[in-house]
Design goal:
7 strands, globular, alpha+beta, three-stranded antiparallel beta sheet, about 20% strand, single chain
């Protein structure tokens, strides 16, 4: 029964698909670091290995050989440096006790930006439009998926999350969407304009304090 339960969970994980959108990574075809970012779609977390070699006689009879998905060609390639990033404990405890929507969203944003700065440490600032940020943290399921019933809730949660990151001095930021704020106050259609606003993040203190620390390459 335990082996069957594992098989069911593995099948669920293997059905997962995700995409990488313009993320800096090692390019195995060009054999160099691509600072402009690579994009891949329909990636699996892991998959069954077609050629696993001679099986070990001591292996479980129900065992299957697995390998990492296509993302590993970029981030686990011996030819390219793997950059790491520190992450303050404050981020890990954001939704530790009170599972509030704004705290959980703030945590996802902090992790995303920490990973970005782990690869692009020379940048003093990173800017994203609101729609892109929401998509990358999983708040918008697909491009243009804006439901008017939840627009206000999404906006309030994001603005509270950004405020939390600034107040806790984790990730200084500023949100520029004055036009949308005015439209919302006038009960006009504002969500699409709000999604076009810009969120600018300054290099966080935990990145600045880590400058000069040697990086580990895999």
């Amino acid at each position: 029964a335990f082996a069957t339960a594992l098989d069911v969970e593995l099948e669920r994980l293997m059905r997962l698909r995700f995409e990488i959108i313009s993320y800096p990574a090692y390019d195995p075809m060009a054999r160099k670091w691509n600072g402009n970012g690579v994009s891949r779609s329909n990636l699996t977390l892991f998959e069954i290995a077609p050629d696993a070699g001679t099986p070990d006689p001591h292996d479980c009879s129900r065992g299957k050989p697995f390998r990492f998905g296509g993302w590993a060609q970029h981030w686990l390639n011996a030819g390219g440096a793997m950059w790491i990033s520190p992450l303050p404990a404050t981020v890990l405890h954001l939704d530790h006790r009170n599972n509030r929507g704004a705290d959980a969203l703030a945590k996802k944003i902090a992790v995303l930006l920490a990973l970005n700065w782990g690869a692009t440490r020379k940048r003093c600032e990173q800017s994203l439009d609101v729609r892109t940020l929401l998509r990358r943290v999983g708040e918008l399921r697909r491009p243009g998926a804006t439901t008017s019933l939840h627009a206000g809730r999404i906006a309030d949660r994001l603005e509270e999350a950004l405020l939390r990151l600034t107040e806790l001095q984790i990730l200084p930021n500023r949100l520029s969407c004055e036009e949308a704020t005015s439209m919302r106050a006038q009960s006009r259609r504002w969500f699409d304009v709000w999604c076009q606003g810009q969120v600018s993040f300054s290099k966080p203190p935990f990145i600045l304090s880590d400058e000069g620390v040697p990086r580990t390459s895999l």
